[in-house]
């Protein structure tokens, strides 16, 4: 028993010594890492020195302007089906009509210009900066199609519970436009993570106005006269919410660098949705449908950008000029809220969330620090 007790006591003592050595090694490792970081401090005493430009005797202000050349895409804007097959003499809107060889016609917005302007201030505290940016982009599109020989057109936005004119749909048109306004408020700090790389985490608020209108015209030929069904839809969204993201820059030559940035925002907002449908003849106009919806809901927005940057200090470091060009991609999720009724028997069945909106294209930016 004495030998067993001595053995146990020796093992306990050995374990304590090993653990003490391990703890001492961990502590020494931590102290060494702190020492290395302290040795790498910048001239301002920061472990990660600020990378923002500092002009001599300046106002700590900067202004920026962007020229945008974007294109917009949106799901769910198909307004008519161009069916190439015959219906054996049946009215395509009547019961028993069959879609057998069709192609959906959509509106296709072209490339259009927009702009973004901003102003910012460099704070004294820890190299932080405040900025505000306003983005404005307007676009529109138009498309029309005619019934093919031996085929017909099938409308997509007419309420199926209301009978269309007796006749043949010979022409369909769609007119769509969109207005986008976005304001970003950011608080961030740019700092060095290596000799040639900087990052700038930031957070803040984003508010956005996204207004859409779509008008379609369906022309029916009846006994030599034309009657038109004209649905008019609008969807106006406004929201505000938190935003967070990261800017990065890789310097590869004197004054030249590659930049990349991304952020996500969650907006709380509301829609103002209106759907009206009119019947138009040469002598009169009647209202066939009037529906409205005003939901309150949250929406997500993502932004990505990358490109090439050049910057230079001049006039004895009293000013800085930065010019960059790149590509941007912006996603506005679940923004197609145009109402589409789907069933003639269950009139309360409709579809509203039909897709997302994306903006992508080129951007040319200039920023001036003074």
Outline the fold blueprint.
Elements lengths: L1 H38 L21 E14 L5 E4 L18 E4 L6 E11 L5 E19 L5 E4 L12 E22 L1 E4 L2 E26 L2 E29 L2 E25 L4 E9 L2 E19 L4 E14 L7 E2 L8 E2 L5 E13 L1
Antiparallel strand pairs: 1-4, 1-17, 2-3, 2-6, 4-5, 5-7, 7-9, 8-9, 9-10, 10-11, 11-12, 11-13, 13-14, 14-17, 15-16
Describe this structure in words.
This protein is mainly β. The chain is 10% helix and 60% strand. It has one helix spanning 2-39, and strands at 61-74, 80-83, 102-105, 112-122, 128-146, 152-155, 168-189, 191-194, 197-222, 225-253, 256-280, 285-293, 296-314, 319-332, 340-341, 350-351, 357-369. The strands form 3 sheets. It has a 10-stranded antiparallel β-barrel. A 3-stranded antiparallel beta sheet has the order 3-2-6, with no helix packed on it. A two-stranded antiparallel ribbon has the order 15-16. β13 (296-314) and β14 form a beta hairpin. The protein is elongated and about 95 Å long. Mean pLDDT is 86; it is low at 87-96.
Catalogue the unreliable spans. 87-96
The proportion of strand residues reads: over 45%
Q: Largest sheet, described in full?
A: 10 strands, antiparallel, barrel
Q: What's the end-to-end separation, in Å? A: 85 Å
User: How many β-strand runs?
Assistant: 17
